[in-house]
Fold this protein.
Amino acid sequence: MASKELKQFTRDEVAQHNKQMILNPLGSRKSYHSPYFKESHKRFQKEVRKFVDEVVYPDALAREEDGKRPSLSVVQKMAIFPHNSRGYGDGLNAGAVIGLPPVMNFGAPALRDRVVSEVLSGKKFISLAISEAFAGSDVAGLKTTAKKTEDGKFWIINGTKKWITNGTFSDYFTVGCKTEDGLTVILVERGEGVETKSIKTSYSPTAGTAYITFENVKVPVENTLGPEGGGIFVILSNFNHERWVMCCSAARGQRSIVEECLKWVNQRKAFGKPLSSQAVIRSKLAEMIARAESVQSWLENVTYQMCNMSYKQQARSLAGQIALLKMFATRAAKTLPGTQYWWERYH
């Protein structure tokens, strides 16, 4: 009797159910529980997705076509900065995400209040200018120099930076420089002596990737971020935040990869049957889904720790965890035959 009362689901209903189960993190699914998320978070997630679909996505398509930076009208409508994909996503917020925190955490109050207000309102853009042609994560190898004028009131900056996201259209640059006392981070405003050239990349012109030249750029010493010679701490602390953002992007991107793979294995046939009917393919999909879920769980735990630690505590206690998570998250998806395009698009 009991078996007769069970509802019979169609194949399409089962497929839709499975899709929603896979594409949403466990704690945000209906009827599931989370130690971190409340019902208000789920409602917020729903509204953000609606906003992205109706406002952000149309502009993303248009900007990928013309190669310009995201429209100011989109930024002005945003209450948050969703990082939903590479390319347009990088153009929309990457520079602010990695270039603004040093200003917020180490800038003088007057400088911080002015720059943060301008950037978050969308009136101006900022980028992090650390990488050079022959130095990146090895910040001790930076060659861009900053020397003080005789009266000690200004920095004179000379050097080049490469692969700088948002650099082509940035108004501010958070720059790592070599000084007498070691490394120092300085906020540079676009002006005389600052030249940017676009670098063509394989994924998107909207990110505004740039080669930057600083030639005798005069900057007030008040624009110094953190102590003189203390740039290593400023830069490495910021790397933690930058890597965490990459982990968030990777966690979301993995689910997009899984979605496309699920579509593909049900469309593509081999020997008269869908690829999804083959055990080896199903095994690969299961591994991808399992790793995507584990990345999400690890990310939520690390994020909780970040929310309950000071900036200095994060730098001291979470650098290793965040670095390991980034390594794991960016290697957590496998590709199936014919799906390499999606890996390149989302990874």
Notes: Confidence is low (pLDDT under 50) at residues 1-6, 81-87, 337-347. The longest helix spans residues 231-267.
